[in-house]
Design brief:
Low-confidence stretches: none
Radius of gyration: 22 Å
Distance between the termini: 35 Å
Number of strands: 9
Helix content: under 10%
C-alpha cells in the first residue's frame, strides 16, 4: 500500500487543478559484473526539475505495462534517443541489462518531499532501432535482496565507522570493528553501539 503526501491529497480532492504528477526515473547503470557505473536521472517533462535535492533532466519517454496470459507482467520503457546518449551506454554496458530503474510519480507541488509512488525494476532485456531505445523491465531479483537486512555477529561490529548507527564522534580515525581489541569499541568508549 502506498500513501500520498498531504499536499497531494489536498490537490487530488479538488474539482480542478493546474498541478500535475510528474513521472521520473532514476537509472543506475551497471556493468556486466553488477558494479554501479553511473546514475541517470530523467523526468518526462518539458523542463528539468530538482526532486529530493537531485536534478532530473527533462527527457521524453514512454512506459507501458504488458499483460500476457500465463506469464508475469512486464514493463517496457521506450525513449527517443536523438543524441544517442542512452544507446552509447547500452553499447558500452551490454545493453545495461541488470541495471536498476526506479520509477517515481511526483506531485509538482511536492518536489522536496518523498515521491507519492515509487517502484524498483531491473532491466531484463534491451534493444535499439534507429533513434529508439527500448528496455524491458521486470521485478527486481529477490535473490539479490539481503535478508535479514542486518547481520549481527558476536565478534564483529556491524556498523560503518562514525556513521549515525555507530555513534562515535571522537578524535580516533580508525576502528578494528571488534569489541575488546586495542582499537575496538571499548577503546573508543563506544561499547553500547557494538
Amino acid at each position: 500500500m502506498h500513501s500520498i503526501s498531504l499536499v497531494t491529497a489536498a490537490d487530488k480532492n479538488k474539482l480542478a487543478s493546474d498541478k500535475v504528477f510528474l513521472v521520473a526515473l532514476k537509472i543506475d547503470i551497471k556493468n556486466q559484473d553488477g558494479d554501479l557505473m553511473e546514475t541517470l536521472r530523467v523526468v518526462n517533462n518539458n523542463e528539468d526539475i530538482v526532486f529530493a535535492g537531485e536534478t532530473y533532466v527533462a527527457y521524453p519517454f514512454n512506459i507501458n505495462i504488458n499483460y500476457e496470459a500465463g506469464s508475469q507482467p512486464t514493463v517496457s520503457l521506450t525513449a527517443q534517443d536523438v543524441t544517442r546518449a542512452l544507446m552509447q551506454r547500452m553499447q558500452t554496458y551490454s545493453g545495461a541489462i541488470g541495471s536498476r530503474v526506479t520509477l517515481f510519480a511526483i506531485h509538482e507541488d511536492n518536489l522536496a518531499g518523498p515521491a507519492d509512488f515509487s517502484h524498483v525494476f531491473d532491466v531484463i532485456s534491451a534493444s535499439s532501432n534507429d533513434y529508439t531505445v527500448s528496455w524491458t523491465l521486470g521485478a527486481n531479483n529477490l535473490l539479490d535482496v539481503k535478508f535479514p537486512s542486518r547481520r549481527q555477529r558476536r565478534d564483529r561490529c556491524a556498523w560503518t565507522y562514525k556513521d549515525a548507527n555507530c555513534g562515535y564522534t571522537g578524535a580516533l580515525t580508525t576502528c578494528s570493528y571488534t569489541l575488546s581489541e586495542a582499537n575496538g569499541c571499548e577503546a573508543h568508549g563506544n561499547e553500547s553501539s557494538f
